[in-house]
Amino acid sequence: MSSLAQPAAERPEVAVVRHPIADARNNVVGYELRFGGSIDLGDPAMDAKATSALLVDAFGDIGLEQLAGRHPAWVTIARNFLIEIGPPPVRPDRAVLQIAAYPAQDDLLAVLQQLGRSGYTIALDEYDGRDDLAPLMSLCSIVRIDVQQVGLENLPAAIAAPRMQSALLVATNVPDHATFAACRDLGFTYFQGEYFAQPRLFRRTSVATAGLGSLRRLAELTAGDVSFEDLEQIISSDVGLSLKLLRYVNSAFFALPRTVSSVREALTLLGVRTVRRWAVVMAISALPDVHDELVSLALRRARMCEMLGGSALPDERETLFTIGLFSVADALLDSPMAEVLDSLPFTEEIQLALLRREGPKGELLSSVIAYERGEFPNAPNGGVSLAGAYRAALEWADDAGRAIA
After folding, report:
1. For the CA atoms of the chain, what is the radius of gyration?
2. Any idea where the domains of the chain sit in the sequence?
3. Contact, 143 vs 123, CB < 8 A?
4. How many CB atoms within 10 Å of residue 133?
5. Is residue 5 very low, low, confident or very high in pLDDT (cuts 50, 70, 90)?
6. b/e per residue, 349-376, with b = 16+ CB within 10 A?
7. 330 and 340 in contact (C-beta within 8 Å)?
8. Cβ neighbour number for residue 285 with a 10 Å cutoff
């Protein structure tokens, strides 16, 4: 029986993550989709027809809209897949097809020429400056270069040939903001890597003045013994936070039966725990110079940690949510994690999980981060799968992000 004919329960679970590709201003321009488990479109050893069937399942079950939103999906395609099957089941304007950078035979060049005429964008992937790719490069309007593999000192030479044909340059595997700045100055247009979730420590070594007020507000909101009256006072004393929270509570995300017009009413209707959680999210999203993708990452990790923890206890779920949410606190505040944690009233358990990935919750956070990197580890417990938690958290975080934007 083919994969397409199998009941959903019998089909292999699709493991997929998306990695943002952004411009120099941190605006997302696309998402690279990386598949694990039974699907690897870039592996020439994979059976092309079986992979195609699983890919149809992936896009059918998950949906391209959920995976990439309104942005193009960047997908690595093995040569045998293109020759035997053709392009993946995605419209040309919704995809960028990535081809590995090594010499191509005439049959592949002919397929790529046809794809280009059909409107597909072709990207040469993992280009390192080699000089025997002229026929293939001439068909690619985008060239992706792994900056750590090539090395910063070798980049000027590596980008010479792509520049000659006016290809758009993408720096991949960018580890930090210093490397991002160097690539931007060399003329790269798009960037991909963990830099956007790292603090810009070359600019600052302590929490910036602009973030001190927000950090104090976060400290007040995350204090373990905050009461109904305390929380009402904390939120109401910040006009911007109050307005943003009320707008969010009245959005379609909550779908409440009536309009909530005050912080007290929100607390009465939703409870201290829910309002505090979302007040913390509001405060984080209001931090200076924080881009949407970083907030989305924080929300996704928070939701994944909460789901994977498998606890029905509200306090335990809240702790897991907090660990995921604050796992990017150093990037949010452009400061070392240890310094940020010194200013927040977290328990030792939360601090060890965030700072050293220690304890069961720290190990769970490590699994979540490994999965989002595309390492696809096994689930930390026998409950919800990492793949299922990632997909659910992705949809939830995107919905929440749109509501707080």
Report:
1. 23
2. 3-197, 209-404
3. yes
4. 20
5. very low
6. ebbbbbbebbeebbebbbbbbebbebeb
7. yes
8. 21
CA distance 87 to 91: 9
Distances (CA, A) of 314 to 66, 124, 317, 322, 353: 28, 48, 5, 12, 19
Tens digit of each residue's pLDDT (9 = 90 or more) over 227-251: 899 899 999 988 888 988 999 899 8
User: Interhelix angle for 348-356 vs 314-325, to 10°?
Assistant: 40
* CATH topology (fold) of 209-404: Hypothetical protein af1432 (1.10.3210)
The C-alpha atoms of residue 206 and residue 335 are separated, in whole angstroms, by: 5
Say yes or no: domain 3-197 is CATH 3.20.20.450: yes
Query: Which contacts (CB < 8 Å, 24+ apart) does range 343-350 have?
Result: 343/207, 343/215, 343/216, 343/219, 344/215, 344/218, 344/219, 344/222, 345/219, 345/222, 345/223, 345/224, 346/222, 346/322, 347/224, 347/319, 349/319, 350/319, 350/322, 350/323, 350/326
Are 53 and 84 within 8 A, CB to CB?
no
Helices 228-236 + 272-285 axis angle, to 10: 30
392, burial (CB in 10 Å: exposed 0-12, middle 13-18, buried 19+):
middle
Residue 7 is predicted with a pLDDT of 43
pLDDT in tens, 162-193: 999 999 999 999 999 999 999 999 999 999 99
Determine contact, residues 31/67, Cβ cutoff 8 Å. Answer: yes
Can you tell me the distance from the alpha carbon of 38 to that of 46, in angstroms, rounded to the nearest whole number?
9
**Residues whose CB is less than 8 angstroms from the CB of residue 39 and which lie 6 or more positions away in sequence, other chains included:** 14, 15, 16, 46, 51, 54, 55, 58
In DSSP terms, 21 is beta-bridged to 30
Q: What is the Cα–Cα distance from 389 to 364, expressed in whole angstroms?
A: 12
Whole-model pTM: value is 0.87
Show the DSSP H helices in 118-167 as ranges.
Answer: 134-137, 147-150, 155-158, 160-164
